[in-house]
Description:
Layout: H1 39-48, H2 56-66, H3 70-76, H4 86-103, H5 107-110, H6 122-128, H7 132-145, H8 148-176, H9 184-215, H10 217-227, H11 230-243, H12 247-279
Helix pairs in contact: 4-9, 6-7, 8-9, 8-12, 9-10, 11-12
Amino acid sequence: MSTPVSSSAPKRCLNCSAEIHSTYCPSCGQRDLDFKKDWRGLVGEFASSLLNIDGKVPQGIIRLLFLPGSMTATFLDGKRASQMPPLRLYLFASLLFFLWFNSQQDPDLVATPTLSTAEAPASENALSNGNSGAALSAKMQEKFESPEAFLNAFNTWLPRVLLLGVPLLALATRLVFRRRGYVYLEHVIISMHLQTFLLLWVFLIGLSSDLISLASPKVGELVWGVFIWWIQLYPVFALRRIFQLTWTKAIFATLFLEFVFLVMLAAGVALVLLISFFWA
């Protein structure tokens, strides 16, 4: 009696197409995980590799900056082992950006002496006397006279609020492209890559402009003014590649999402200012 032959095709790795028979690919080592069905597994995969910075960083940065949407599309196709995890790349870009951002602050402003003990409780005294308007005025005066604590609180809360913008922008792309078949977690990855590009590009152009300005301030300003326009063009190419859009749809989608992002950014900065004002 002949043995029946299975008609089912062998399971293959989404990253290297090798045949797999277990949880991990024997060729490239990628875990056999469909995050459309098992998003917890992908989150765990991100967390386990969060602090491992390897040789994928330079390659990933170059690809992210100059091939809009390419890294995202590849990742969403299932080829994760060959990519740097989006969360790790975002945190790496955020670290570089805020190191540069903090360096742009006026050192004389940060070094302003704090109020004396006798002057400091003016707002508290006004509040205890029941005059809330005078208390707010006195507190504002304290912040202007001693901005160091305010700036420290601002620098502490701004990265946290920007990180909250990732799932919010993902929600916007989910609504705009709801018919494209992507699950919400995939939109989080798209959002994370777009914001990672923004942080990295502003950091690189800002740092380059600062260095060039040491020799020629006019050339430094020119570098900033020219290359900053890539921020406007990048999402058009990225969205067109990821969602297979026409140029017209990609442009209109970019304009809408940029408007949403600017509204979120303004609200986030306002929230950070409010927190910093009362937290410091």
